[in-house]
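User: Some background: our group keeps a shared notebook of sequences we're curious about, and every so often someone picks one and asks for a predicted structure to add to the entry. Today it's my turn. The entry only has the sequence so far, pasted here. Could you supply the structure so I can complete it?
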Amino acid sequence: MAHSAIAPRILCIGIPVRDLTFRVEAVPERGSKANAMHLAEICGGNALNAAIAMARLGGRVAFAGPMGDALETSSGFILERMAAEGIETGHIVRIPGATTPVSAIIIDASGERTLTIYRDPALWSVKLSDADELLAGCQAVLVESRCGAFCIDLCTEARRRGIPVVVGVDRAMELTDGLLTVASHLLFASEQAQETASVEDDSEALRRLAKLTPAFLAATRGPRGTIWLDEVGQLEETPAFPVEAVDTLGAGDVFHGAFTLRLAERGSVREALRFAAAAAALKCTRHGGGMAAPQRIEVEAFLQDRR
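Assistant: Of course. Here's the predicted structure to add to the notebook entry:
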């Protein structure tokens, strides 16, 4: 697969999370308890998982967003792992007195995950660095959908400069959300596309959303693949690659990261979706959330075998 000899620079905007993952045979019923077969402490969060994926796939990745107080332990844990992945962290803003988000995640024998997370409300007070500094040399921006409150101006400026803004949507969006219209690409999870459009059908949800935004629209559906609207509004489908999934945690985030990187490499949307499907499939075959994102050589070999 051809890609740029000079790795593109991509800015990720989000809120990093410290994840505690527990592997169990089955999720315990309410009021009961279960012994976990395995415990892992990893870093996560939608944009950070995507950033890790892009770094491993060959991108130059910078991260911007809030983290907790410089003295609390979770942020130090996450920053060490970001540095190990080669992710630029100079634009992360420490919020005095705040706590970096922490989640508890249960992964059952099928690989499906159930989680709860705490995000300190103080994190939303963050002020990002200047747009000229953040967007210098940038070929794409990837944003968590929950972060519009503190990055909409930056994303608007990115679009004014012709830089693609990809939004990974894992929660229903308000129809007045500025990211809905400023984004160049909106990658919804199926459930969130339906909830945002107030309709119980993926294809109809995309068609309704297309009346509200000029952005490229797609809905990811796990093992059922991705449906999307082409440039003339026709519905298309990119199949998922069948694999034996052991851990779906972070798969959507890896998909978003791989898609954004391939787009920044000037691949077509069709190429980017297939590349992203391969990266997400490989991630699902191993434990570790976003920390299980594959390397570029793995994805290219995987795709070569399936031509």
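Suggested note for the entry: The two ends are 11 Å apart (CA to CA). Residues 269-284 form the longest helix (16 residues).
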